[in-house]
C-alpha cells in the first residue's frame, strides 16, 4: 500500500464496515420495525441493506415482508427506525472504531493525503464525533449532501471535488459491493475492505484497515 500512496493525494472512506461497525445497530432497529409489522427480518436479509440509502433500505425491508404502505406511512416508519438507531449510537465512543481505523487515518494525514468521507449515512457527522475522528476529515460527503445512492458515483465524485482533486488522484476504501461499483464508476482506485468473494471487482482487497498500517 505504501507504493500506491506515493501517487495518491486523496483518500475517500465509506463509514460503516470500514471505520466503524454500526451495521449491528441498523439491523436491530430494522428488526424491531419488521417485528412490529408482523414478519421476521434476518441477518441474511440485512446483508441486502449494505451501502444502501435509508429510503431504499426501508423498501427492501418491506419487500422481505411483502408489505405495501403509503408514502406517508413509509416516511413515518423511516423516521421511527432512525430514532431507534440514534438511541443505539448515542452510546458510541472511540472503542467502537474498527481495528487500525484511527491509526491509518493518522498515517495518511502525516503523508499529506487529504481525507474525505463518502457515506450514505445522514448521521455520519454525529458518529464521527462520538468516536473522536471528525477532525481528521477534510470533507464530509454524506446522505445530507447527495441524492443518488451507491452504486451511483455521486458521493465519491462530490468528495473528490470537495478535496480539490481529480479521480485519478484518489483512492476509495469500501466494504460493500455497491460502493466498489460506485468508486469504479467514479474512475477511482478502490480498496475493498472485507471478503474478496464479494469485493473481487476492487483493485485490492484487505481484511481491514489494520492490514495497511505501516
Number of domains: 2
- The helical percent reads 40-55%
Arithmetic mean of pLDDT: 93
CATH class of the largest domain: Alpha Beta
Question: Count the strands?
Answer: 6
The number of helical elements comes to 10
The CATH architecture category of the largest domain equals 3-Layer(aba) Sandwich
- β content, as a range? 5-15%
Q: Write down the Rg.
A: 17 Å
Oligomer class: single chain
Q: What's the overall geometry?
A: globular
Order of helices and strands: HEHHHHHEHEHEHEHE
Query: The CATH topology of the largest domain is what?
Result: Rossmann fold
Low-confidence stretches: none
Q: CATH superfamily of the largest domain, please?
A: HAD superfamily/HAD-like
Biggest pleated sheet: 6 strands, parallel
How far the N terminus sits from the C terminus, by CA atoms, comes to 9 Å
What structural class do you assign from the helix and strand content?
A: alpha/beta
- Main-sheet strand order equals 3-2-1-4-5-6
Outline the structure in words.
- A 6-stranded parallel beta sheet has the order 3-2-1-4-5-6, with helices on both faces.
- Helix 2 packs across helix 5 and helix 4 crosses helix 5.
- The chain is built from 10 helices and 6 strands.
- The mean pLDDT is 93.
- The chain has 2 domains: 137 residues, Rossmann fold; 67 residues, Putative phosphatase, domain 2 (DNA polymerase, domain 1, Orthogonal Bundle), CATH 1.10.150.
- It is α/β, with parallel strands linked by helices and 214 residues long.
Amino acid at each position: 500500500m505504501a507504493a500506491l500512496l506515493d501517487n495518491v493525494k486523496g483518500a475517500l472512506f465509506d463509514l460503516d464496515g470500514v471505520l466503524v461497525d454500526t451495521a449491528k445497530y441498523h439491523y436491530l432497529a430494522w428488526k424491531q420495525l419488521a417485528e412490529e409489522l408482523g414478519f421476521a427480518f434476518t441477518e441474511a436479509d440485512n446483508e441486502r441493506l449494505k451501502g444502501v440509502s435509508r429510503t431504499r433500505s426501508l423498501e427492501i425491508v418491506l419487500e422481505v415482508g411483502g408489505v405495501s404502505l403509503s408514502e406517508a406511512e413509509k416516511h413515518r416508519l423511516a423516521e421511527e427506525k432512525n430514532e431507534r438507531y440514534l438511541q443505539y449510537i448515542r452510546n458510541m465512543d472511540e472503542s467502537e472504531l474498527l481495528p487500525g481505523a484511527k491509526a491509518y487515518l493518522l498515517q495518511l494525514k502525516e503523508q499529506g493525503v487529504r481525507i474525505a468521507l463518502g457515506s450514505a449515512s445522514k448521521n455520519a457527522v454525529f458518529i464521527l464525533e462520538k468516536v473522536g475522528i471528525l477532525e481528521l476529515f477534510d470533507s464530509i460527503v454524506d446522505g445530507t449532501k447527495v441524492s443518488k445512492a451507491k452504486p451511483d458515483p455521486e458521493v465519491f465524485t462530490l468528495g473528490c471535488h470537495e478535496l480539490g482533486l481529480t479521480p485519478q488522484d484518489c483512492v476509495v476504501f469500501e466494504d460493500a459491493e455497491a460502493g466498489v461499483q460506485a468508486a469504479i464508476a467514479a474512475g477511482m482506485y478502490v480498496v475493498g475492505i472485507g471478503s474478496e468473494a464479494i469485493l473481487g471487482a476492487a483493485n485490492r482487497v484487505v481484511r481491514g484497515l489494520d492490514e495497511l498500517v505501516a
